[in-house]
TrEMBL record, chain A:
<keyword id="KW-0472">Membrane</keyword>
<dbReference type="InterPro" id="IPR011138">
    <property type="entry name" value="Cytochrome_b-558"/>
</dbReference>
<feature type="transmembrane region" description="Helical">
    <location>
        <begin position="160"/>
        <end position="177"/>
    </location>
</feature>
<keyword id="KW-1133">Transmembrane helix</keyword>
<feature type="transmembrane region" description="Helical">
    <location>
        <begin position="107"/>
        <end position="128"/>
    </location>
</feature>
<feature type="transmembrane region" description="Helical">
    <location>
        <begin position="198"/>
        <end position="222"/>
    </location>
</feature>
<protein>
    <submittedName>
        <fullName>Succinate dehydrogenase</fullName>
    </submittedName>
</protein>
<dbReference type="InterPro" id="IPR034804">
    <property type="entry name" value="SQR/QFR_C/D"/>
</dbReference>
<dbReference type="GO" id="GO:0016020">
    <property type="term" value="C:membrane"/>
</dbReference>
UniProtKB/TrEMBL annotation, chain B:
<keyword id="KW-0411">Iron-sulfur</keyword>
<dbReference type="InterPro" id="IPR006058">
    <property type="entry name" value="2Fe2S_fd_BS"/>
</dbReference>
<dbReference type="Pfam" id="PF13085">
    <property type="entry name" value="Fer2_3"/>
</dbReference>
<dbReference type="GO" id="GO:0046872">
    <property type="term" value="F:metal ion binding"/>
</dbReference>
<keyword id="KW-0479">Metal-binding</keyword>
<feature type="domain" description="2Fe-2S ferredoxin-type">
    <location>
        <begin position="1"/>
        <end position="102"/>
    </location>
</feature>
<dbReference type="InterPro" id="IPR050573">
    <property type="entry name" value="SDH/FRD_Iron-Sulfur"/>
</dbReference>
<feature type="domain" description="4Fe-4S ferredoxin-type">
    <location>
        <begin position="149"/>
        <end position="178"/>
    </location>
</feature>
<dbReference type="Pfam" id="PF12838">
    <property type="entry name" value="Fer4_7"/>
</dbReference>
């Protein structure tokens, strides 16, 4: 069965859809968690610490967090690998362009590939900036995420990179969520409008929710 | 009408092709697009030149032989086949670009003619029923719910012209394959091969070098028979169901 899935374009697209939905689920939780920054350093840092103690005493310190991280890494790798392989195949299947070219499909649809690459690069920067602190501006303090976030969004490039990536994320989800539904065979004529609406609402809420953090720092509401 | 045509000319499969420009005059707006090309070809023959090769057969919009990407659109600006497209859809003095279907699974044979036998091999992989049907059976012998009959007929309308592949930015044959799978999988006559049909046809589609679906919707927009995009969703559902069932065996 695993072989059948990975060898088929339809199966590989299913891998993309499922891994995409896992990441989407995570992003919803991540976005809600981020908004706690508006309730002050105490609550935000407490929430960050709680993430490490979830499931105790059954789970050891940080076990749950690492479990989530592993699932996410697997999802990112599966998503990117299937996207890369399918894209290679798609480009090969249409080697010569039409002389009379015209823009095909919506902006969100056309930017899925490059949008995905931008998001992949963003994730690397984001982890190096706020998880490991390797490229953090101003001294990175382990266990003080509130201050670290304020540091990042106090630089112009931190704001630009983040906001551009979140706009790319919104576009990616707009086409991706609806497409995942089609790939998994749950779309239908009757459900089409509802699925498109959910995709747009999710894209809008996630983009707005994530961008609210740098906007908070830029306007001085969060400092 | 006086028109400027820019037509893809290619001597044979191995030759380099290019767009050639032709002027045609005295075109009636009541002519079909293919009749307009016939006028061009008559002149080319009289002038001792090689006529433009293009596929056509019934010229009634039901056989699926005609193709042509006209001004970047498969079958041109109207939602119909090229043979049913009329010159009234164009203006006097227009420049019209005419190109063949573009996909690596549809190699150009000559000028505007492409080899679509990849579609035949997809059909051979499962686009049939193994039950002997003989002559038309008595209509009440096998009851088919009205909704299923309508669904099957909607998909049976596919004439296999390949416009979906030509329009798809990935050169994918998902809409064609899904039309065949949905048509036969919903009917009781097609039930015995329900799983193998979708698995084999999708496998053949991949083997032919067609691309994958990115849900751009271009195929359904180009389809002269109005096969809907949601057909692909239906095929994905059938494929996942079949992969699960066969995996358990």
């Amino acid at each position: 069965m695993a072989r059948t899935m990975w060898d088929s374009t339809v199966g590989k697209k299913t891998v993309m859809a499922v891994s995409g939905l896992i990441m989407l689920l995570y992003l919803v939780a991540h976005m809600i968690g981020n908004l706690k920054i508006y309730f002050g350093a105490g609550e935000f840092n407490h929430y960050a610490h709680w993430l490490r103690t979830v499931g105790e005493p059954f789970m050891h310190y940080e076990w749950t967090l690492w479990l989530i991280r592993i699932v996410l890494v697997v999802a990112v790798v599966a998503h990117a690998t299937s996207a890369y392989q399918l894209s290679r195949r798609d480009i090969k299947a249409r080697p010569s362009k039409y002389v009379h070219a015209r823009p095909r499909s919506s902006y969100a649809t056309r930017t899925m590939r490059w949008g995905g690459v931008i998001l992949g690069l963003f994730i690397v920067w984001h982890l190096l900036d706020l998880t490991t602190g390797t490229v953090h501006s101003g001294g990175f303090q382990e266990g003080h995420p509130y201050q670290n976030v304020v540091d990042t969004f106090s630089t112009w490039y931190g704001d630009v990179v983040y906001i551009v990536a979140m706009l790319a994320l919104g576009l990616h989800i707009r086409h991706g969520f609806w497409s995942a539904a089609q790939t998994l065979g749950v779309g239908s004529r009757a459900r089409d409008r509802a699925l498109k609406t959910v995709a747009n609402v999710l894209a809008l809420l996630l983009t707005a929710g994530f961008i609210a953090v740098p906007v908070g720092v830029m306007t001085g509401v969060v400092s | 009408m006086k028109l400027t045509l820019r037509v893809w000319r290619q001597k044979n499969a191995g030759a380099e092709g290019a767009m050639s420009t032709y002027e045609v005059d005295g075109i009636s707006s009541d002519m079909s697009f293919l009749e307009m090309l016939d006028v061009l070809n008559e002149r080319l023959i009289l002038a001792g030149e090689d006529p433009v090769a293009f596929d056509h057969d019934c010229r009634e919009g039901i056989c699926g032989a005609c193709s042509l990407v006209i001004n970047g659109d498969a079958h041109g600006p109207e939602r119909t086949t090229t043979c049913q497209l009329h010159m009234r859809s164009f203006q006097d003095g227009d420049t019209i670009d005419i190109e063949p279907w573009r996909a690596s699974a549809f190699p150009v044979i000559k000028d505007l003619v492409v080899d679509r036998s990849a579609f035949d091999r997809i059909i051979q992989a499962g686009g049939y029923v193994t039950a002997p049907t003989g002559s038309a059976p008595e209509a009440h012998a096998t009851p088919v719910p009205k909704a299923d009959a309508d669904f099957a007929f909607e998909h049976a309308e596919c004439i296999g012209c390949g416009a979906c592949v030509a329009a798809c930015p990935n050169g994918a044959a998902m809409l064609f394959t899904s039309a065949k799978v949905n048509h036969l999988n919903v009917l009781p006559q097609g039930a015995p091969e329900r799983e193998t049909r979708v698995l084999d046809m999708v496998a053949q589609m991949d083997a032919e070098g067609f691309g994958g679906c990115t849900l751009t919707g271009e195929c359904a927009t180009a389809c002269p028979k109005g096969i809907p995009l949601v057909s692909i969703t239906g095929m994905n559902k059938e494929w996942l169901r079949a992969a699960r069932k066969v995996g358990k065996r």
